[in-house]
Amino acid sequence: MREQPIGEAVEDDAPASDVMWPPEKEIKVSEAHASLAKAVAGSRGVRYFTAFIIDVPSDAYLGDVQMAIDEAAGAACGILLTTHVTGRDAATGEPILTQEATRPFKFPCSQGVAKAIASFCDKLKMAGIFP
């Protein structure tokens, strides 16, 4: 064990999260993926957030998470957006990019956006979507 400057003991070998993201950014409903907005349609007070997710061990980009958070109801709904090269434009040779979204996944969460994203990432890992 090592000691933090404030005197709090911390385990050196504490398990680290497999994913990380920069601070999430709040977005307007018009910027959210249509399937996410549809999944929470009719809910009041929903706020939308996005963040890109990085796999810590490989430092690889895994995709963009979008979350709809209803703090009053203590609920969250998330999707993962991934972009794939699906071909080349015959005229320009530029890659053709296609965005895919997981189906929206709703779950209880009343501990804020960061906890909602972490919980959603855990669920993606359990489903085999994340490494």
From TrEMBL:
Highest taxon, organism lineage: Bacteria
Name listed for the protein in its UniProt record: Uncharacterized protein
Lineage: Bacteria, Pseudomonadati, Pseudomonadota, Alphaproteobacteria, Hyphomicrobiales
